[in-house]
Automatic annotation (TrEMBL), chain A:
Protein's name according to its UniProt entry: Histidine--tRNA ligase
Annotated Pfam families: tRNA-synt_His
Keyword DNA damage: no
Domain of life: Bacteria
Species in which this protein is naturally found: Halocynthiibacter halioticoli
Gene Ontology biological process terms, A to Z: histidyl-tRNA aminoacylation
Automatic annotation (TrEMBL), chain B:
Official protein name in the record: ATP phosphoribosyltransferase
A Pfam family the protein falls into: HisG
Enzyme Commission code(s) on record: 2.4.2.17
Record PANTHER family: ATP PHOSPHORIBOSYLTRANSFERASE, ATP PHOSPHORIBOSYLTRANSFERASE ATP-PRTASE
GO cellular component: a single term: cytoplasm
Organism: Halocynthiibacter halioticoli
GO biological process: L-histidine biosynthetic process
Annotated InterPro entries: ATP_PRibTrfase_cat (IPR013820), ATP_PRibTrfase_HisG (IPR001348)
Amino acid sequence: MTQKPEVRAEAARLQAFFAASGAQVVDADILQPAETLLDLYGEDIRARAYVTNDPLRGEQMLRPDFTVPVVQMHMDSGASPARYVYSGEVFRRQEEDTDRATEFFQVGYEIFDGANPAASDAEVFALFQEVLSPLGLRAATGDIGILKAAVEGLATSEARRAALLRHIWRPHRFRTLLDRFGGRTPVASSRAKLLKNLEDTEAQDLIKDAGRVIGLRRPSEIIARLETLQEDAKEPNLSETEVELLETIMRLRETAPNVLEALRDIAIDLPSISNAVGQLSARLDALAELGVDVDSLDFETSYGRSTMEYYDGFVFGFYVHGRPDLPPVATGGRYDALTQVLGQGKSIPAVGGVVRPGLTWKMREGAL
Amino acid sequence: MSDAATLKLGVPSKGRLMEKTFDWFGARGVTLRRTGAEREYAGAVEGVDGLELVLLSAGEIPRELAAGRIHLGVTGTDLIREKLAAWEMQVAELAPMGFGHADLVMAVPQCWVDVETLDDLDAVAAQFRKTHGFRLRIATKYHRLVRNFLKDQGVADYQLVDSQGATEGTVKHETAEMVADITSTGDTLRANHLKVLSDGVVHKSQATLLKSRKADWDGGRREILRALETALRTADE
């Protein structure tokens, strides 16, 4: 921790850079109510954040990032559009990798502006690229909105589409669901037996015969799900063509213009992605206008799916070449979905990113 | 400083786990026994010179191994994985001992006729959260193991509630919707109207002889370990 004054100075330099583009400087409490974060991220956050206890305020977390407090602050202020910059320490428990920092600086830049999403996306990325350009990093980009739109357009039941959408950020479960809906994995024998039993036994009797009814989940909820299962059993499998289209989309990894071209071809068979593809095209134009070399920009449709929950559109990251052991120097993206959860119905188009001054400083010093 | 370096072997201080551990070592020509009064946690070793018996609560053995205060220890693999982050960097498994079998399992009420697999559980967790406005509660004392398991399996919309005892009763008392608990026969689960998910085995545990990676292995201690390993190997052949 001996380098802290230098990292602090580097953080100030980065913050000044973003502030110069017109962003308002904001700050957030280090202690955040655990409830909000747990509700948002679920149990996984406990593995990543330090939890402490306040006798009056209950469970608190040392802020694992600034996103939640900044979104809340913005929603309370009601001012729109707005641009914010912040700088400070964040705290992350490390359960697997003892070499990863548990306490480090983060400088972030966030735009809340729904007028022109493509332009906002491009503005954030171009600013990060500009401030990081002397470091020779590798940029990765993606767009989770494309997979989302593809799922929304599948010719299947609303329930199945919702199940897939819920697991966009959990590739393993997404795969399992897709295999089941596509008929690639057989119906579990226990499920087949259950459906058979339901043919000649009332759901209520099945429940009664199974054992004493205990717990908060009531028989009415069990019956409702049994009905859902019966409905779902009637649902035809997803067509092989659709599953393959989805797989092709998930595999796309090329320069941005090549991916765009491939997606335009796919959109002919899967028109539901047309808007998302149009959005990608508009973003690339906006990026080119800001001087980003779009022709050589890497684009991966599945980028950020397992690491960036709630990012539901444009996503990006900057990495040190040949150092997969290091965390990304900067990451960011569009997180409209998060503002929707936090805003309880109200949602605000939001895009932003964070950079780690601890890493940029080390690189500038030639220490990496 | 003592005259000669000793190798400390941590063994559960009471109950069947201690007896079985003594039997296991005894069958391999290493005699472990308690000495002194009934309530005094002192022990003696015959068969390997320099090996010292330390009697400890089974739950403390992972921590003592990780701190390097004991060189070897006997405990369940469930406790090692639960209590030690990045356990493989802190301890090494020398030998599974073939007793103390227990499975950490995910169990739901028997009346949940619609739930047999993790896939069902995940769907029900989404339904439950929508209906009740909070995440489905799983009572357990194995937070790390259960959280990692459900993360790997991609199950969402649940929360863990801590339960250090009588976990099976939490569902009836409506402080949790289901449990993740240790079972060897499943009898207690059944008696509490719970059933195990078909793919809900989080971890299969058994008593295991472990070596600390953090302890001081110099001063002749490596030789003592080698002598012990030779004794154990010879008996197994």
